[in-house]
Amino acid sequence: MTDSNITSGGLTAPRHLAIIMDGNGRWAQARGKQRVSGHKEGANAVRRVISECVRLGVKELTLFAFSSENWKRPALEVNALMALFVEAIRKESKNLLKNGIKTRIVGDKSKFPSILQSQIAKVEELTKDCEVMTLNIAANYGGRWDVLNASRNLLKDCLANGTNPDDLTEDDISQRLNVISNVDLMIRTGGEQRISNFLLWQSAYAELYFSKTLWPDYGADDLIEAIEFFNGRERRFGMTSAQVQAKGELNAD
Ligand code: FPP
């Protein structure tokens, strides 16, 4: 698996881009509006960013829409977010299919209202054979939960198959995560510089980019700026700079 794709515009898009969409509440408050209107405007930014990612050649996009900790928010806001997810999936399903976007909701879906669970099942089934880009919407997701869940499943398999624990590899865990592939670039909008329990295992070697732009204002220019930053990084994966350069020359031959 390669970790990036060359695009026609000369930018090298990350193969797997992950985004922590932050700043909806502050965007709304700055305009004297309810927080919910920030989330609604945030949904428009989601649409913009998905189509820009397809254009740039990103193969996998994972968006943090609702963390396991977000249930602690006021009930009014949580309910509005659930309604927004239902509406967004209902409105966008056909577009996702038309654009070849395989859509998955990753996280503990069992806690969602049944209407949302059935919308999720529909869009996942509808788009399951799409190949242009994979869109993972992380909802009721936490990185530690993902690793715990994978570990539980691995333990069950080991007990069933009599596997020796000493024979286990990192890949045995990776393959049981909700999101399997490594993240190449992780962006957080809204000015904070934290990972907030997102894709902890998968972002072990991700480049991190923090943008001050509040999520509802996020657009193509912001995304290109982040990818330019990504293109300027030397990804060493534990090697020395000289080793990376020698490997690059070898690959170019
Ligand atoms: C963080 O901003 C944002 C969220 C917790 C929700 C993200 C949801 C959307 C963008 C809505 C649509 C999503 C989809 C997938 C259709 P915040 O509320 O924490 O902002 P703040 O830090 O300014 O308070």
Structural write-up:
This protein is an alpha/beta fold and 253 residues long. Helices cover 45% and strands 17% of the residues. It contains eight helices and eight strands, in the order βββααβαβαβααββαα. A six-stranded parallel β-sheet has the order 5-6-4-3-7-8, with helices on both faces. A two-stranded antiparallel ribbon has the order 1-2. A hairpin with a 5-residue loop joins strand 1 and strand 2 (12-14). The radius of gyration is 19 Å and the shape is globular. The two termini are 19 Å apart. The mean pLDDT is 94. The structure holds farnesyl diphosphate. The site of farnesyl diphosphate has 20 residues, from helix 1, helix 2, strand 4 and helix 3. Farnesyl diphosphate binds at residues 21-26, 39, 42-43, 46, 63, 65-66, 70, 84-85, 88, 137, 190, 215.
Provide a short characterization of the protein structure.
The protein has helices at 24-29, 35-56, 75-98, 114-126, 143-161, 170-174, 220-231, 241-252, and strands at 4-6, 12-14, 16-20, 60-67, 101-106, 133-141, 185-188, 207-210. By secondary structure, the chain is α/β, with parallel strands linked by helices. Helix 2 runs parallel beside helix 3 and helix 3 (75-98) packs parallel to helix 4 (114-126).
Secondary structure layout:
Blueprint: E1 4-6, E2 12-14, E3 16-20, H1 24-29, H2 35-56, E4 60-67, H3 75-98, E5 101-106, H4 114-126, E6 133-141, H5 143-161, H6 170-174, E7 185-188, E8 207-210, H7 220-231, H8 241-252
Parallel strand pairs: 3-4, 3-7, 4-6, 5-6, 7-8
Antiparallel strand pairs: 1-2
Helix pairs in contact: 2-3, 3-4
Farnesyl diphosphate is lined by residues 21-26, 39, 42-43, 46, 63, 65-66, 70, 84-85, 88, 137, 190, 215.
